[in-house]
Amino acid sequence: MNRADDEGRVTLSDVAREAEVSISTVSKVLNGHSHVAASTRERVEELLLRHGYPRGRRAGADAPLIEIVFHQLDSPWAMELLRGVEAVAAVRGAGVVVTHSGSRHAPGPEWIEAVVRRRPLGVVLAFSSLSPELKQQLWSRSIPFVVIDPAGDPDLDVPSVGSANWAGGLAATRHLIEQGHRRIGIITGPEDMLCSLARLDGYRSALTMAGLEPEASLVEFGDFHAEGGYLCGGRLLAHEERPTAVFAGSDLQALGVLEAARVRGLRVPEDLSVVGYDDLEIAKWTSPALTTVRQPLREMAEEATRLLLRPRDDKSPLPTRLELSTTLVVRASTAPPPQG
Amino acid sequence: MNRADDEGRVTLSDVAREAEVSISTVSKVLNGHSHVAASTRERVEELLLRHGYPRGRRAGADAPLIEIVFHQLDSPWAMELLRGVEAVAAVRGAGVVVTHSGSRHAPGPEWIEAVVRRRPLGVVLAFSSLSPELKQQLWSRSIPFVVIDPAGDPDLDVPSVGSANWAGGLAATRHLIEQGHRRIGIITGPEDMLCSLARLDGYRSALTMAGLEPEASLVEFGDFHAEGGYLCGGRLLAHEERPTAVFAGSDLQALGVLEAARVRGLRVPEDLSVVGYDDLEIAKWTSPALTTVRQPLREMAEEATRLLLRPRDDKSPLPTRLELSTTLVVRASTAPPPQG
């Protein structure tokens, strides 16, 4: 069966009629056959373009794709990032292919094979710990890629989009200080992630700038998930001199802290203030609604996708680092500390 | 490089052996070359089909794709479904293309054009209100599709995977009755969705079977989102004779009910029991953790994808309807009613 005919029957007939040639001639032009007069080819190609046929169809290029790769699909993060990629890709008529690398720190070798066959316009990698092999594989195949890097730990030789973690930690802590809190606990992320350390440093700087002494016993390292928030929150709340506020480091960890408070009979925000980080959809619907630091995940993904899609010479490199700002969103989980 | 060879090395050898021709002949058939005897072509094509080679490979098909289309990407549902599709597709080496149709009830005309060009193995549609046009477009292009239909409103001429909504409503309500509740409110979904009505009927049947009179004033129709749960929950809790339990119809609506309870100073589960529906990831981390009806969203998506990927003759239809069971998951948001 003739492929060109099969793919776009209606439009091809229209083109043939308009160009006053046979459908088979249109099909030959599409398929790059040589025995078509140059003037005919030109006319047909012009019409194909006008009717929405991108140049260079035939293989991969005829159905433009953007790839996005996640470590984990089970975090609400993933959806925010996917929405950003999808929104920008849709405008450009590109499909979005989602891959989930699972526990491995990079997709396996079969992934790069599939990507090469799919010939995407580019790849968005939603994790920052890129192996040298992966980078080399993408470079050697001239597949452009951008890293979305909420972890704040970009490779210097890789284009990435991140957000302002230190400033976010600072803003969260300042907000609590302004409410009158003096004993403020923090649950940051894993100790080996730069974003955890940047948020922690922002917290410490806010305390120091307010003349408060950061206290090592009020610092916990979680896992960015609800369970970590629950465990670390439990430890902070069991503290002899209990903090009146906790900066939870992520919205999921904040959920865990809310539960740790509830099981101890502590009301939020009356007995304990809680600040999250991320501003996921769910942050509006926790009880109470969560004061949090908005990390512009969707915008980061949009920016990464725009970088991949912007017209450029084959050789022009992508910019190395783009950092979007974070903003404090005040809702109902923070209030002045109880009168002690 | 010979593309056909590259695509399916192992199976091509098998086909060549079975057809008693050279691999190069099989490749010629695949590539549509003309100098192959008609009888040979027929034999090889028949074997290619039997070995799972869809007709008309060559382009697109060498990087197999599965499409999934959502109305909305902003519900936690979407991620569960995507995970299911991705898990099954990955095992088969297929990429997953995600499309988001937005406010429209079906993806626009440019979508079907893109799908035709991408030539996916099949399409999973994560919504049930298929327009006749969309169905016709997919049928006429021989693109297999399966509907994931948590809404419980399948077209009879369309293969779909759903779950047992009536049984879910029954189980949720029975659980509350067993805890000793007699005044039980329900917030079901929109009135025009069959799943809403099925869950509501399950609720009514559970009441009736327990000798309780269903009360119209205790029935609210929400939107399956947190905001609807908050508004409807507020109305139920403002009731003169307040219900001691609410079956919230979805986990997101349950979040809204938890918040409606909190702002009224009602403790869950001491003063009010709440049951959700779906068992999203978040249901483990609400405060308190949510008793809910588990809707096997991921398994539904897996099943839908398996249906698309299973080997079959070109003409054999997909099964019309597959329904997975729902199960009650008891956590901390339900307890006996307060002593009145």
Automatic annotation (TrEMBL), chains A, B:
GO molecular function annotations of the record: DNA binding
Superkingdom of the source species: Bacteria
InterPro entries per the UniProt record, alphabetical: HTH_LacI (IPR000843), LacI/GalR-like_sensor (IPR046335), Lambda_DNA-bd_dom_sf (IPR010982), Peripla_BP_I (IPR028082)
Keywords on record: DNA-binding, Transcription, Transcription regulation
Pfam families from the UniProt entry: LacI, Peripla_BP_3
SUPFAM superfamilies to which the protein is assigned, alphabetical: lambda repressor-like DNA-binding domains (SSF47413), Periplasmic binding protein-like I (SSF53822)
Phosphoprotein found in the keyword field: no
Domain HTH lacI-type: 10-64
PANTHER family: LACI-RELATED TRANSCRIPTIONAL REPRESSOR, LACTOSE OPERON REPRESSOR
Protein name: LacI family DNA-binding transcriptional regulator
Organism: Streptacidiphilus monticola
